[in-house]
Here is the input.
Amino acid sequence: MKLSLDEWRRARNKSQDEMARACGVHINTYRKWEENPANIKYDKMLTIVEVLNISLDDIFFASDTTQNSKTEERSVTA
Here is the structure.
């Protein structure tokens, strides 16, 4: 299962304010990113993953395998 941006941030003990400052944006902008990460520009994604010490795949490009597994289970049992 893929973790969300706020879950990664919390797991790394970072505040929204720390993340906003690291990205050079207002905290309200960062909060909106946590709600909708699709609006984050690539250069800011790179900053986020660097600060959180994760890869882009861990957060932005990873698929949610939980949903895929459930779909596959239904296909097999049907």
